[in-house]
Specification:
The complex is a heterodimer of chains A (122) and B (107). Chain A has 122 residues and is an all-beta fold. Chain A contains no helices and eleven strands. In chain A, strands 2, 4, 5, 6, 9, 10 and 11 form a seven-stranded mixed beta sheet that branches. Classes of the chains: A mainly beta (122), B mainly beta (107).
């Protein structure tokens, strides 16, 4: 069965960096676009970034553009989110999610991980 | 960016009730709209994609309709496991955007 498992969250000081990982199993990882979505405590969902299946197309939310980088390692079925210049408002549970469509970005997210909490605080 | 507005923000309903949630986009998204269910402490779950297609494994009491700017999620007969928060999301253009959510509570 499809599984996505995030890791790498924790408490980090403002201005510092953190890298999140998402290990996938149960599907052909290299064939699917992948997304990061976050949810601040008690708040709604905010889409963060997407990476196409071939790794050539990346899109970001304005709130993270220039600070966050999405990447993938198909040999290890792993999605990454490199976060730098972190701010208090980046505090959230970060979910990785698989795009519904194989080979292109449909932007409907059919499988989600359990999330990893990032807390930005001094 | 496309703004997504859901209404109501919360609804109280009883088992067996028909529940309708509305989502409005600030511009035409055609049928590029998805609906998700989220329970406390859990990840969201895809219910509906491209406005009206039921995701595999989702009960048929859930249905979606609409196109352009106005969309609806309907639960035909509310079950105990349906008490949750529901989000719409436009899939038309980046950045992807979600509605603010509708919490379905027990009356």
């Amino acid at each position: 069965q499809v599984q996505l498992v995030e890791s790498g969250g924790g408490v980090v000081q403002p201005g510092r960096s953190l890298r999140l990982s998402c290990v996938a199993s149960g599907f052909s990882f290299s064939h699917f676009p992948l997304h990061w979505v976050r949810q601040a405590p008690g708040e709604g969902l905010e889409w963060v970034a997407v990476l196409s299946s071939d790794g050539t197309n990346k899109y970001y939310a304005d709130s993270v553009k220039g600070r966050f980088t999405i990447s993938r390692d198909d040999s290890n079925n792993t999605l990454f989110l490199e976060m730098s210049s972190l701010r208090a408002e980046d505090t959230a549970v970060y979910y990785c999610a698989r795009d519904w469509a194989r080979g292109y970005i449909s932007s409907s997210l059919d499988y989600w991980g359990q999330g990893t909490l990032v807390t930005v605080s001094s | 960016d496309i703004q997504m507005t859901q209404s109501p923000s919360s609804v109280s309903a009883s088992i067996g009730d028909r529940v309708t949630i509305t989502c409005r986009a600030s511009q035409d998204v055609s049928s590029w709209l998805a609906w998700y269910q989220q329970k406390p402490g859990k990840a969201p779950k895809l219910l509906i994609y491209v406005a009206s297609s039921l995701q595999s494994g989702v009960p048929s009491r859930f249905s979606g309709s609409g196109s352009g700017t106005d969309f609806t999620l309907t639960i035909s007969s509310l079950q105990p496991e349906d008490f949750a928060t529901y989000y719409c999301q436009q899939a038309k253009s980046f950045p992807l955007t979600f509605g603010g959510g509708t919490k379905v509570e027990i009356k």
